[in-house]
Every structure is written in structure tokens, then in C-alpha cells.
Amino acid sequence: MNPFIEACIRANEEIASALEKGFDTSWYEKTEVGAGGDVSSKLDLFAEQIFFKYLSSFGHIESEESGIMGEGDVKIIIDPIDGSSNALSFFPYYGTSVARVNADGLLDAAVVCNLANGDLFVKSGKDDVLQGRLFSAEFHPGHVSSASEIGLFEKAYAHPLLVAALDKLGFKFRAPGAIALSLAYAHTVEYVLFVGPFRIYDFAAGLALCEGLEVIVEADYVIVSKRKNVADKIEQLVKDLREE
Fold first, then answer.
1. What's the CA gap between 93 and 102, in Å, rounded?
2. DSSP calls for 12-68
3. Fewer beta carbons under 10 A from the terminal one: N or C of the chain?
4. Is residue 88 exposed (0-12), middle (13-18) or buried (19+ Cβ within 10 Å)?
């Protein structure tokens, strides 16, 4: 692991250790609308401070919460807590995402962590995605399922017509509520679907982990699948409903 990836892992381990001790009551407090357009909680800002401590020496940080922090030619895009509503509800599907864009504008490192169970996904340069766990030095190629039965549909609650259309075609799904994490698990599910405005904080790291998959990115939807025919069918559904 290079020093940047190591620093990302150490930051995640410090956040996970703090959560393990119990949620501070102040973390539930809402503050103000962050750079990503959502109201930040103090849990988001707590995690952001830890990432700044570990990563600011590598370049400037663009955070979903506080926007641009620090300086440097290298850009580090972070979502300090991916799925913070889940975290604050003790629903065990929340994590963090970090992507590094080098001085030439190329994304050359990505780390997504599931803080609820310790799953860690790492992409460095042209190397294949590796999967491991927090507080462990062992990594292996990312898990792949050839018998996936479900997809992941983020923000499904806002799209009832699309939910009905997917059900009619027999596309089962779950809607867990943390898009970077869902993209990290894209190799093990049938598909990942997000419908809504594209924000770089949500997707930079997660999409870097989807190498080798069918990936469709538009301004208002993202579709990822192991199978092209599945991605194409879902995209057609999205387009058809848009025209109605």
C-alpha cells in the first residue's frame, strides 16, 4: 500500500474506533447546508476533521460538508460519512469514501470503507481492486458473485413508477442508502441504480471500484451492472418513464 492509501486506512480506523465507543450525543446535531447540498451533522464534521488530519499533507480536500479545505495541486474528494442518516439511525450500512485526483487531473486512488462491518475496498493506480478489513493487513481481490439475485436501487423511495417497472420485469432490489458503499459492492450484486443529481462526492471513489463492469453515467442517473443487457434494460426503463 502506498502512503496515501495507508493514511486513508488509518483515518477510517480512527473513525471506526470512535464509533465503537458509542455515539456522542453532539453528533446528532444538525449544523448547516454543506457543499454537497445536504445539511451536515456533527458526525459528518467529526469524520471530516479526522480525514483532514490524515490527508491534508497530500493535497487540498474537497469535502461534501465543508467544500475546499487546505491547498495543493492534488485534489482529494471525500464524503466523510456516506449514509450518515443510516449511521444516526444505527442502521448498519454507512461508511466513507475518498478519491485522489493527481496534478494531471487523473483519478489515481480510491478507498471506500463500510464502517458498520469493517469491509474495505482499495483501488490504487492501474492495480486491480483489493478488498480487506479494517485493522487487518490482509487484502485479496474483491469478491465477485456469479449468482446475484438482487440489485441496489439508491433513492428508490423517490421514484415509485420506476420501482413498479423494475418489479414488473422481475428485477429485485434493496435500497440501503449509501451510494459509494453500494458501488463498492457492485461486483457482488446484479446491478446498482441511482436516480438523482450526480454529485462528485457521491461517485468519485465508488465508480473507480467498478472497473470491468458496465457503467452508464448521466447527469441524473447512474447504472452499473456486470451484464450489459441488464444495464441497457434499466436505462431504457429510465428513459421511457422520463418521456411519459
1. 30
2. HHHHHHHHHT---GGGG-EEEE-TTSSEEEHHHHHHHHHHHHHHGGGSEEEETTTEE
3. C
4. middle
157 part of a folded domain: yes
In a domain, 146, yes or no: no
Q: Which residue has the cell 441524473?
A: 220
What CA–CA distance (Å, rounded) separates 28 from 223?
A: 32
Range of the domain at 170: 151-241
Q: What span, in angstroms and rounded, lies between the C-alpha atoms of 172 and 80?
A: 30
> How confident is the model over 10-18, as a mean pLDDT?
97
**DSSP state string for 188-222:** TSSEEEEES---HHHHHHHHHT-TTSEEEEETTEE
- The answer to whether 65 is a known ligand-binding residue is no
Point out the domain boundary residue: 106, 141, 176.
Answer: 141
pLDDT tier at 7 (50, 70, 90 boundaries)?
very high
Task: Reply yes or no on whether the pLDDT at 243 is more than 80.
Answer: no
pLDDT digits (tens, 9 = 90+) for 205-214: 999 999 999 9
Under 8 Å CB-to-CB from 11, ≥6 apart: which residues? 50, 51, 53, 54, 55, 96, 98
Helix axes 42-55 and 3-20, enclosed angle (nearest 10): 150
In this structure, are residues 12 and 120 in contact, taking their beta carbons and an 8 Å threshold? yes
d(CA 81, CA 97): 8
Q: How far is CA 8 from CA 4, 67, 101, in A?
A: 6, 19, 14
Together in a domain, 112 and 22: yes
